[in-house]
Design brief:
heterodimer; A: Ubiquitin-like (UB roll); 7 strands; 11% helix; B: alpha/beta; 5-stranded parallel beta sheet; 5-stranded mixed beta sheet; 41% helix; globular
Chain lengths: 105, 611
């Protein structure tokens, strides 16, 4: 299936202006990808400038550092399973503490 | 900041810099702080919450005699320090540096007792298991270490800072350059000694550890003049979940199987039992906790090499032979124990595994595989954890030599023991040497190197290179290896180093949380470790531990009781076979037809001696 991922972005090199970017990710049927898997795919293959918490992430919901707003609700990127083809909307948990894209301090 | 290049945003001065925020780093910081010197810990993530420590199966061990003396009535007094030492060296196929294994055995009781004290005061659950070991959770280990840091003499902390390069002056360490991951600032730490506690190198796509095991410290230490060794030896854990994706890399199946409560059949993609046709002695070996990982990795990898695995390269834990009630009961009992650790029903490593539990009741199967768990290779150290680079010390998984070709004892204990010793040695060293001479040119050179991916245009992005590294490791460095695959992998890795590494460029020039920049900086270390592992695996024309060569299946003690060192010769890694120290135990003189024959022979000797 093809999943539309809408990401609220803000790049420091553009002066932090907020905008929304849409990516399309082909996900194998029944693979049970997480939001983190989708972001890994986008960052590695489509857009290297994307920022989300990854640098020391455990990837299994233990370190509790990859929080983001997922379809409007706060959750952990590595613990959110993408279950259907509905668009996935990813936003940072705080505008005021935002560093880049989905990363807040 | 007089005397420092203009690119540097922040300068910090300390005596001992500890790089790494896991157990070895925390241990080193405490060891140095108790010697009353200034200590700074720089961690890529958060102290106690990053690296492999929080994801580990969380068992700490000492010999049974010492555990009994501590009042553990269930401890096994026949597991004396001497017997434990013999087990470590024997299980490691006699490639241990025996003084390091001795240090591990001697200091484990004091370090584990200290950890248990911090755990008690931090309210973390630790339960006595068997022999001389305690079981807990990775998170509890992390929180206990943080308690230890709180109780210690002052230790400065620099979290979310990635150290990228060590700088030397007049033949010894003078400092280290890093980046603050959130702000992108360049941070220079001027110091007299460095402890590398950065963990291992896990280049595979399937692993049960965090993604930050990129061999940073191993690469940095080598560039500073240290030698590295044993890079061909990686530890694979049989029984990590392949699917569902959310649990990918979870070692719950291995843990359940290991406890003996749940023993499903291990079957291939067509449903044939891998163990049915094996001799009874091999089946017994595979159920022995000491030999479990080696025996299963051998048998599983043989089946996978014969094309009997799933499309993802996995096998199945099949629960269908027995009644679901039997497993229901076994799991229920197990989860009653887990509840003490995780506080909630049907939780493992703080996450719900109710779906896996339910799948057994629906008579489903679990897809499992061999995942990378630990790297035996790393920086060469002596029994004071000193490396060949003056002022550079290493500890834990980043160091090498304690366990030899494979590890059956506890890495968490290794990190505590070695961390503490490295911290003490680094503190003693820092007191003996003068302030390092200024090395502005070296720092400037390091700054230029670190900033280069941000300023290049039209180069290669790091993302696809990361995927290529995983593909090379998956294809050539798994449990079963052959000259053909290793040569092919080595050619690809060398081409990446030569052609891609100097041209790495990132899209965003801004340094604030620039993930691509972090990836680009890690790649040099990842490629160094990958190439060293491939070269050593190709050179070692025999099988030993979980390095199993399909073209050289025998254990060749005549020629290969040697560790493969990479020494820094003019910046290039020169491969030198070196005999480890056999100061206490002599290795077997004869060869074995395969690693299982060696394991069976050792097990016969060990059980014979007990009876």
């Amino acid at each position: 299936m093809n999943i539309e991922v809408q990401i609220a972005r803000s790049r420091p090199e553009d002066g932090g202006a907020a905008y929304r970017q849409v990516y399309h990710v082909p996900v194998p049927d029944g693979a049970g990808w997480t939001a983190m898997d989708l972001l890994d795919y986008i960052q590695r293959r489509l857009d290297g400038s994307l920022g989300y918490f990854r640098h020391s992430a455990c990837g299994r919901g233990l370190c509790r550092r990859c929080a983001a707003r997922i379809n409007g609700n706060v959750g952990y990127l590595c613990a959110h399973i993408v279950e259907d083809e509905r668009p996935l909307v990813l936003e940072p948990i705080s505008e005021s503490r935002r560093i880049r894209d989905l990363v807040c301090r | 900041m007089k005397g420092f290049p203009s690119q540097i945003d922040r300068v910090i001065d300390t005596d001992v810099l500890v790089i790494g925020g896991g157990g070895a780093g925390a241990g080193a910081a405490m060891g140095a702080a108790r010697r009353r010197c200034r200590v700074l810990v720089a961690a890529k993530g958060r102290l106690g919450r990053s690296g492999s420590t929080p994801l580990s199966s969380a068992v700490v061990a000492m010999d049974g005699e010492s555990a009994r003396k501590m009042g553990q009535r269930r401890a096994d007094p026949s597991l004396t320090p001497d017997r434990w030492f013999e087990q470590i060296v024997g299980h490691g196929f006699f490639l241990s540096e025996q003084p390091l294994a001795q240090l591990y055995v001697e200091q484990a009781p004091a370090r584990v007792a200290e950890l248990l004290g911090w755990a008690r005061r931090a309210g973390q659950p630790f339960f006595f298991g068997a022999g001389g070991s305690w079981i807990t959770t990775g998170r509890a280990i992390g929180r206990s270490l943080c308690q230890g840091i709180r109780e210690s003499p002052p230790i400065d902390l620099l979290e979310d800072v990635m150290i990228c390069e060590l700088t030397c002056s007049r033949g010894r360490i003078s400092g280290a350059l890093g980046i603050d991951i959130y702000s992108g600032e360049l941070v220079y730490v001027a110091c007299r000694a460095v402890v590398i506690a950065t963990g291992g190198f896990h280049p595979f796509s399937f692993k049960c550890t965090a993604g930050d095991n990129t061999g940073d410290g191993i690469g940095m230490a080598f560039r500073a003049g240290a030698a590295v060794a044993d890079m061909e030896f990686l530890l694979f854990c049989p029984g990590a979940l392949f699917s569902p994706r959310i649990h990918r890399g979870s070692i719950l199946p291995m843990f359940l199987y290991g406890t003996g409560q749940i023993r499903p059949d291990i079957v291939d993609a067509k449903g044939s039992d891998l163990f049915a046709a094996l001799p009874a002695e091999v089946r017994r070996l595979a159920q022995d906790p000491a030999w479990f990982k080696l025996a299963h990795a051998f048998i599983w990898s043989e089946a996978l090499a014969a094309g009997r695995g799933t499309s993802a390269g996995g096998l199945f834990f099949d629960f269908r032979r027995y009644s679901s009630w039997r497993y229901f009961k076994g799991l229920l009992l197990t989860f009653m124990v887990f509840k003490k650790f995780y506080g909630r029903r049907f939780h493992y490593q703080h996450r719900s595994v109710r779906d896996l539990f339910d799948s057994i009741r629906r008579r489903g199967r679990w897809e499992v595989g061999l995942c990378c768990e630990y790297s035996l290779g790393g920086v060469v150290v002596d029994a004071g954890m000193q490396t060949a680079a003056a002022g550079v010390f290493a500890a834990g998984e980043a160091a090498s030599g304690t366990f030899g070709a494979t590890r059956t004892s506890r890495a968490l204990t290794e990190m505590l023991v070695q961390g503490f010793v490295a911290g003490e040695s680094a503190a003693a060293w820092s007191k003996d040497v003068d302030d390092p001479a200024p090395a502005e040119d070296r720092i400037e050179q390091a700054c230029r190197k670190v900033l280069a991916p941000l300023t290049r245009s039209g180069g290669t992005a790091p993302g696809p290179v990361l995927e290529t590294i995983e593909a090379i490791a998956d294809g050539a460095l798994g449990v079963r290896r052959s000259a053909g695959a290793l040569e092919k992998g080595l050619a690809r890795a060398a081409a990446l180093r030569r052609e891609i590494l100097p041209r790495l460029a990132v899209q965003s020039p801004n340094r604030r949380y620039n993930l691509e920049w972090i990836q680009a900086l890690q790649l040099e270390n990842q490629l160094f470790c990958l190439e060293a592992a491939l070269r050593a695996a190709l050179r070692r024309a025999e099988s030993r531990g979980q390095h199993i060569r399909s073209d050289f299946p025998h254990v060749d003690n005549g020629r290969w009781l040697r560790r493969l060192h990479f020494e820094n010769r003019g910046g290039k890694p020169a491969l030198r076979p070196r005999q480890p120290s056999f100061c206490c135990l002599s290795p077997p003189q004869r060869d074995f037809p395969g690693v299982l024959d060696y394991a069976l022979d050792r097990r016969r000797q060990e059980t014979g001696r007990l009876n």
